[in-house]
């Protein structure tokens, strides 16, 4: 009985003070993560409309900086329908491909959500 | 006591269920990043030779090659050499080891199988999104006769292209063109038709008279062209199935040329020269009614409908130099849309309706270019001694045209609408005046 009770009590502090568990990434440069994904964001096979789409994708990275395949979701996009989906797919592919061995994450990162704005300003390559 | 035990047990159960979420509280940590400069590089894909599921023999390899060639030929995709493959696909149903394909950086994987018997071929394929560890859409299969194996390969490539790009493909299509032979002073010109990639050429006319500017009907079953068989240029209509030919819009004392179908296939627009003046006319192919659309002392030619059939783009020298104009399909005051230096001609409206392709001559060079339908955003895609006569792929992504170097023979080239991927289209001899068919049914 006491064991059961302690198990319940052990869980309570996390419920009551989640903010305390948040690491501080204030000094970490987000651009490192963006730079690691950028080489894989390839729009060559997309239509003109999909190439011009500006959209935000959310996904989770684990502690090793590896993306969770099922975590990708399109938060918002200037392109709808199939065009928006193709643009989203290219972004997802970019994160998955460049994140295969882990993307750079801040010190102390134990996993969390990344929100990425894809705002094409012209191609390179 | 039992009641208390139940409460505590329930509490533990809830806590246990909640634990992953609570343990994942750091997952509420959030990063925000912005990417602004995408890469534009061919997407690496892998396409192992399709599996022979019985009777296919060399067909499995030949179909695989055509599919891979179609995709790589777009310039949007790049095939990873088969020698780099780690997993060897020996069964169509075998599970795909995605890590093996990720390791060689394949972003798309096409697996397939071919079965042949009794003159019939079955081709099936699956497209895999390698980094998503999943199939990209359902598998598909095509059934046809043995001699249509190239068409089935093109259809597989069209399906793969469409799934990845979100656009329809253009591989299962044909191109009619003028096949040229003989010395310059005794040039022989015949109508010929080939697959879009230069394969399967056959000849539609003999070389007894000069032919020019063939154009497919919107359904691909008829071809308009200009022939000098009467001694003067006149337009003719050919039935592709029977090769039967009949004259169109014949008017005594006139010359007719530069014909093109309306999007519904019921009307033909063309140039008609009478008494030294050339205007644009339309002919209702059902009723035979002829209508004059322009009335100017200038030379007006090369009409081309907008995809919705409401407008016609054409070339005219009414301003003193050859320029591009747009007018309502029933005629009316035209609006000049070309405005840059040089001369503009042979405008062709894109099947998508957004761009107009044209030939431009400026400072001794010829160009194939595109502009929006209001004449803005002009972009020159090519430059050479002589580039002319653009024709659009069925999906509006690629332009084919004639190129001739100084002292050389004319040949067919294609270029992506972005200006990338300039390629020579293989033909057995000199070739000019290409016209792309719609996608085949």
UniProtKB/TrEMBL annotation, chain A:
Domain of life: Bacteria
Alphabetical keyword list: Signal
Signal peptide: 1-21
Name by which UniProt lists this protein: Energy transducer TonB
The organism of origin for this protein: Gemmobacter lutimaris
Lineage of origin: Bacteria, Pseudomonadati, Pseudomonadota, Alphaproteobacteria, Rhodobacterales
From TrEMBL, chain B:
GO cellular component, one term: periplasmic space
Keywords assigned: Cell cycle, Cell division, Periplasm, Signal
Signal peptide span: 1-29
Domain of life the protein comes from: Bacteria
Keyword Signal: yes
Compartments, as annotated in UniProt: Periplasm
This protein's record includes keyword Signal: yes
Gene Ontology biological-process annotations: cell division; protein import
Pfam family, one: TolB_N
NCBIfam families tied to this protein: propeller_TolB (TIGR02800)
Subunit structure, as described in the record: The Tol-Pal system is composed of five core proteins: the inner membrane proteins TolA, TolQ and TolR, the periplasmic protein TolB and the outer membrane protein Pal. They form a network linking the inner and outer membranes and the peptidoglycan layer.
Function (record text): Part of the Tol-Pal system, which plays a role in outer membrane invagination during cell division and is important for maintaining outer membrane integrity.
The protein, known as: Tol-Pal system protein TolB
